[in-house]
Amino acid sequence: MMQHLDEMSIEQILTEINNHDQKVPLAVKQALPQLEHVVKQVIETIEQGGKIVYMGAGTSGRLGILDASECPPTFGVSPELFTGMIAGGEKAIRYAVEDAEDNIELGRLEVAERLTEKDFLIGIAASGRTPYVIGGIESAKERNIPTAAIVCVPNSPLSQLVDYPVEIIVGEEVVKGSTRMKAGTAQKLALNMISTTSMVKLGKVYQNYMVDVQATNKKLRKRTVDIVRELTDVSEETAKAALKACQGNLKAAVLVCQFSIDYKTANETIQACQGNLRAAMKQLQCER
């Protein structure tokens, strides 16, 4: 492969990287059936009161932490629902702690301390053979914890070890061995799909709106007002008043505006429908 990369112009290098990157979505597409199994297990785990834990080293670990950290503000879930574990701990999020990934016993110990049989462990390792992740998966299996792995090579040790392997075969990197490139992109896409699809199916999205978004800043407060307006065709003033009356509960505000009911009734209806806005709207329509 690119044995003369250093002799290329800037334009040529950028073009070469871009050409390689275009292969990633196609590789992810091939893994969609495997990803579907993972999503089904994520949903089942959450419905039964468990949590989703991503585990990786280096880039893979950081991507897991990134996805987990974005779920609470986007979908209004507890920070404990999706969590990430990285070899080397907090320091490794910002700085390379390269030897930590070789510690298989550390992986075993951290899983034993942090997970229960109600949880679901998803290992992330481009090579499919990171000792830290393998140790964690082995520890999980000993405790009857369901497991998955997102890898970028075929028939890896991790794939053979877990219940739900996801193999996204992206091929050799432009910079050989630099798995932060295509492999990292593939892992990010897969994690986006896993968390987003599971949240959609668990009622955190109505149509294509984030109806459990946490309005923690000016931008998001405006977004909640806009969502209420777009879903119910009311004025900005009416949407703001409804959100205020509903203590910021976007789903309740939608019901208040759509059905001219009070916050108490709206909130009780949502609770009765396990937080599913579509089901709540159908129930209120039937009661009319």
UniProtKB/TrEMBL annotation:
Pfam families: GKRP-like_C, GKRP_SIS_N. The keyword Lyase applies. It catalyses: N-acetyl-D-muramate 6-phosphate + H2O = N-acetyl-D-glucosamine 6-phosphate + (R)-lactate. GO terms for molecular function: carbohydrate derivative binding; carbon-oxygen lyase activity; ether hydrolase activity. GO terms for biological process: amino sugar catabolic process; N-acetylmuramic acid catabolic process; peptidoglycan turnover. The active site is at residues 70, 101. Keywords: Carbohydrate metabolism, Lyase. Pathway: Amino-sugar metabolism; N-acetylmuramate degradation. NCBIfam families: N-acetylmuramic acid 6-phosphate etherase (TIGR00274), PRK05441.1 (NF003915), PRK12570.1 (NF009222). Specifically catalyzes the cleavage of the D-lactyl ether substituent of MurNAc 6-phosphate, producing GlcNAc 6-phosphate and D-lactate. Belongs to the GCKR-like family. MurNAc-6-P etherase subfamily. A lyase-type mechanism (elimination/hydration) is suggested for the cleavage of the lactyl ether bond of MurNAc 6-phosphate, with the formation of an alpha,beta-unsaturated aldehyde intermediate with (E)-stereochemistry, followed by the syn addition of water to give product. This is N-acetylmuramic acid 6-phosphate etherase.
